[in-house]
Amino acid sequence: MSIQQKKLSIGLFGFGVVGTGLYKVLQKTASLNAQVQKVCIKHPEKKREAPSDLFTVDPEILLQDESINVIVELIDDADAAFEIVSRALISGKAVVSANKKMIAEHLPELLKLQEKYNTPFLYESACCASIPVIRNLEEYYDNDLLQSLNGIVNGSTNYILTRVSKDKLSFNEALALAQAEGFAESNPSLDVEGIDAVNKLSILLAHAYGIVTHPQRVVYSGIQNLQSYDATFAQEKGYEIKLVAQAKKLEDGNVAAFVLPQFIENGNQLFNVQNEYNGVVIESGFADKQFFYGKGAGSFPTASAVLSDLSALRYDYKYEYKKLHNNTGTQITNDFFLRVYISFEGLFQVPHERFERIEEWSSNDSRCYVIGIISFAKLLESNWWKKKNVSLIVCPDAFVSGIVEKASVKEELAFV
Description:
Rossmann fold, 3 domains
């Protein structure tokens, strides 16, 4: 009997913000014919808005119950989540997960399990919560004409940057406000340092370009080093600063992919994505740019994506990974040039000789900045740009073509 013909009997791991939201949503969607049969939790002493006999601390009760045909995994522990998901797939249970760290770090193994046991594994909620990015990349953009993907995929950092821009707060003040409002964790490093965003980008790369790569192989930085000076510069230019995850297909067929702060011009669809919202711009060869916008975090927005995956399971839906299976050698490359803004405390703090061309520079008693073109490969040769007092922000016109690397740019550095 196919899953379309029978009721979805759900074993739920985790009953936090998203798990509770999913439980409430399912109470209001009787037409889905899905019911949470058992919930595995870690702290049984907590009070929860559900009957006490629904809960257990024993994962085996869910994993070994043959009447449960869907496992929904919504826990924080990536290692434990991988164990749960793996065992569920091996046992023939369909799986829905929101754990982007677990998926990003273990995607090769999860792909093998899906293929070997022919078991559905869906995770729309792991990227951008309520925005159906993965399903669109799988179905609508299942061709070779996808030019680029640019997105604000982390609501916490976007909330912080919005408050810096709109309320003229310092980055530390905005972070404290985000924590008070519940948009940032007490330990915000996963969000603020760009780790959450790069996990999501590595997942999206598999569906956008058929590239499976560990997130540690994707270049990223967060907003932790940005200064009030940078925010003032952005305001004077009419820019917004956003943490952008992006992938772009280059002329040689390979893909540039990174997560870095970027100046966004008015007119770019991401310019008005504010607070905890996410936005993704997908550009294809014929359809030009399409914009997806919605809440990127929270109980009900994330639960709505889980609900969408559950609904798809009724029809035996699986990701086909068409681009992965048809990949003829497309891979991530560092062979391209970027136009970047870098601010720092002193002229000698930045190795100017690494630039191919310097287009603008300024200095005062408190801070200096340089705008120029740099080889991405050279940018990665050392972590000088990740030092505490150095801010690197990608310019609006980020990608630069037709640059020939030079042995030296000393003639352009007379000001040093």
